[in-house]
Amino acid sequence: VDWRRSFITTEVNPYFDSFVKWQFLKLREANKYIEFGKRYTIYSPKDGQPCMDHDRVTGEGVGPQEYTLVKIKVLDPKPKVFDSLASNIPVFFVAATLRPETLYGQTNCFLHPDLIYSFFYVGSDSSEIFIATERAALNMSFQGMLPVEGQIKYVKGLEKVKGETLLGCALSSPLTSYEKIYSLPMMSIKADKGTGVVLSVPSDSPDDYAALSDLKKKKALREKYNISDEMVLPFEPIPILDIPDLGQLAAVNICQKMGITSQNDKVKLEQAKKEVYLKGFYHGVFLTIF
Q1: Which of 148, 185, 151, 170 minimizes the C-alpha distance to 82?
Q2: CB-based contacts of 274, cutoff 8 Å, min separation 6
Q3: Which of 97, 266, 280, 286 has the highest count of CB atoms within 10 angstroms of its CB?
Q4: 147, 121 in Cβ contact below 8 A?
Q5: If we measure between CA atoms, which residue out of 153, 164, 174, 163 comes closest to residue 68?
Q6: Taking Cα atoms as reference points, which of 28, 30, 58, 26 lies closest to residue 42?
Q7: Contact at 8 Å (CB) between 195 and 115?
Q8: What is the pLDDT of residues 42-97, one digit of tens each?
Q9: What's the pLDDT tens digit per position in 190-240?
Q10: From which residue to which does the signal peptide run (predicted)?
C-alpha cells in the first residue's frame, strides 16, 4: 500500500472519491459485475440507514443475531381476549430460537404474565396474525415480513395485551410429539430479547425445566394464572439428545445434581445453562427414537 496517498472515499478527497464513483458506475453499466440487494445489518429507524460501529455511542462490536422464528398455532377454543378476531384468520404465537433442532422436545410454550404483547398482521396480504412483543414486531417489519416496511399493522383493539390474558391457550406446534400443548407462565422472559415467546424444551433447557417443575409442584401458582392440571401435569420432558456426562435428560439431571428447586435460583440456573448448552452444542448426539 502506498501510504503517501489518501484513500478517503468522501468529498474530503474529491479526486479519489470521483475515481471510485466512476469505477463503480462503469461496473454497474456492464450489468453483470455489481448486484444491489439487502443484507442483515444493524439499522437505525430514526436515521433510515445502517448504523455501523463508528456511528454508535454504545454497542460497538454488536452485530445482527440470527434467530429462527417458529409459528405456534392457537387452537379453538380460544380465551376471551381473542373474541374480536375473525374466525377465518389463523393466529400464531411466534417464538424465536437459536436451536431449532430441539423442537422435537417441546412440551409447552412460555409467556411472561406481566409483559405486553401485540397482535399484528403479517404477509403482503395480511393473511395471518402473529402475537409477539412490539419490539419484535418492529424488527420483523424491516425484514419484509409485515405488509409495510417499518410499520406495524396492529389488530384493532389488540395493540397492547398483557401476557396473563394469553395464558392457557391450546396450541399446535411443529415437530413435537404432543398433539396439543399450552401457553404457560415463565417469570424470566425478557422484553428486549427474542419475541417474548419461548418454546419450552425442558429436557435440555434448565430454565424451562425449572419453570415447568414450579408449575407442576405448586398448585397455588397454577391457580393464580388459571392454569388447569391438564395443561401441565401430563407433560414430561422428551429425551432428544444424549450428552456426555449429562445423559439423555441433561437439564433434568443437572438441576437435580445442583439442587435447583425453582426458577428463582437464578445464579445456579445460569451456571447450569452454560454447561448444558456448551456440552450439548459441541458433543450432543441426537437420538433416533422421536
Answers
A1: 170
A2: none
A3: 280
A4: yes
A5: 174
A6: 58
A7: no
A8: 999 888 888 888 888 888 888 899 999 999 999 999 999 999 998 889 999 999 99
A9: 999 999 999 999 999 999 999 999 999 999 999 999 999 999 999 999 999
A10: none
Transcribe 193-211 into DSSP letters. Answer: STTSEEEE-TTT-HHHHHH
Rounded to 5°, the CA angle 274-40-155 comes to 90
Instruction: Indicate the domain borders of the chain.
Output: 1-36, 68-286
Distance CA 179, CA 263 (A): 26
Confidence class for position 29, pLDDT limits 50, 70, 90: confident
pLDDT digits (tens, 9 = 90+) for 256-274: 999 999 999 999 999 999 9
CA atoms within 13 A on the CB side of 274: 5
SS3 65: coil
Residue type, 78: K
| Nearest alpha-carbon partner for 184 in 229, 227, 131 | 227
